[in-house]
Design goal:
The chain is of the alpha+beta class. It has 4 domains: 2-47; 63-109; 127-288, 2-Layer Sandwich (Nucleotidyltransferase, domain 5); 310-358, no CATH class. Helix content is 34%, strand content 16%. The strands form 4 sheets. It has a 5-stranded mixed sheet, with helices on both faces. Helix 2 crosses helix 3 (29-42) and helix 5 (81-91) crosses helix 6 (100-109). The longest helix has 17 residues, at 257-273. The radius of gyration is 35 Å and the shape is rod-shaped. The N and C termini lie far apart (86 Å).
Length: 365
């Protein structure tokens, strides 16, 4: 600034020609004339350095579009650029909306992006999900864990990601959970399989890991699938739902259980009907899910076994009668019909294991 000021003031004095003056200041004549024009147009203030950025960007996003994007983001703080773009295109299709990368840049510029710490993840285990290629092939169920309170029970369809239930329970016992599943079965029909973890009431330490709830499922023709212990990634679709559920409904939690359930109900409607899902091509779960063709029966039938098997009903203490003896099997199967056949080694009956159980109530499939 000082050099430019001295240059134009020396020129105003008229003691040197432009050529001599430019040689004295070691600049080209074009530069000298340029600074002289700046001085004549705006005075000494015009000699200050100016930014090189253009005043107008031809590809700049219009202000009204940016405001619409930021407004939707502030309403749904957990929605990413792709979901925001999909919803805006669905609500106002005639307006040209920017790319998802441009929307992401807007959010970052306005401080609406929360950077998550990157962590190393195990490679995905895809084998359990191979059969979830149509609605009602596989349902997933689990409880979310919030500190010391287990809340709520969530049930989803693995293919469509449709959230069938998101309901609080006071206790994680078979009676309350069965009542919720019974309501879902009456409303949506029966799935082919239900995938859960190894906790109660889905599993127990009884024979084959069966619980009273899983025995009831098997009598309905539903296969209970249990992921390996310590491997929640085998039910990764459902676990990902839990992260979104906690972000939307329990941060912070509601004042009481009724208010919290209302928050869960609002989340379920929004998750199913409004929130686009990337795995569904940005469609909503409700647009993909269809009701099962297998209706819930009015009476749960007993299993049927072949004529060659011995059939017994488990007694009150979890035992069955075999050769005038009471053999303990499991209290989980009290009142259920099971089938067995004697084990033989050659022609001699085995004394260590007198029989092998057969049928849907005795083994996990």
């Amino acid at each position: 600034m000082d050099k430019r000021t001295r240059f134009v003031l020396e020129h105003e004095r008229g003691l040197y020609t432009m050529t001599a003056l430019c040689e004295m200041y070691d600049i080209a004549r074009e530069t000298g004339y340029y600074w002289l024009r700046r001085y004549q147009q705006g005075g000494l203030e015009a000699l200050r350095s100016q930014g090189r950025a253009p005043e107008r960007h031809p590809n700049q996003t219009p202000e009204e579009i940016e405001e619409a994007v930021l407004k939707l983001r502030r309403i749904h703080m957990t929605w990413g650029p792709r979901k925001l773009k999909r919803v805006l295109e669905r609500e106002i299709p005639q307006r040209p909306w920017p790319a998802a990368s441009t929307i992401g840049a807007m959010l970052a510029r306005e401080g609406l992006v929360i950077r998550r710490k990157k962590r190393r993840r195990a490679p995905p285990y895809t084998r359990p999900f191979a059969s979830a290629d149509a609605p009602n092939r596989v349902w997933c169920a689990d409880f979310t864990q919030n500190g010391e309170r287990i809340d709520p029970l969530t049930i989803t369809d693995a293919c469509s990601r449709y959230l069938l239930r998101c309901q609080q329970v006071e206790k994680t016992d078979s009676e309350q959970v069965r009542a919720i599943f019974e309501a879902v079965f009456r409303e949506c029909g029966l799935p082919t399989a239900i995938r859960t973890d190894n906790g109660p009431p889905f599993a127990s330490r009884a024979i084959a890991g069966l619980s009273r709830l899983s025995v009831w499922w098997m009598k309905l023709g539903i296969v209970p699938e249990r992921i390996a212990a310590g491997h929640p990634e085998q039910n990764g679709r459902h676990e990902r739902l839990h992260r979104t559920l906690k972000q939307e409904t329990v941060s912070p939690p509601a004042a009481d259980r009724r208010a919290q359930q209302r928050a869960f109900d609002r989340f379920r409607r929004e998750y199913n009907e409004q929130r686009p899902h990337e795995a569904l091509g940005q469609e909503t779960p409700s647009s993909v899910y269809t009701r099962s063709l297998r209706a819930y029966p009015a009476r749960v039938p007993d299993p049927e076994y072949g004529c060659a098997l011995q059939v017994r009903r488990i007694q009150l203490r979890g035992t069955l009668s075999w050769k005038h003896q009471h053999v303990f099997l499991s209290e989980t199967l009290i009142g259920e019909l099971v089938a067995y056949c004697p084990l033989t080694i050659g022609s001699t009956p085995s004394t260590s294991r007198p029989f092998r159980l057969r049928g849907s109530t005795a083994t996990n499939g």
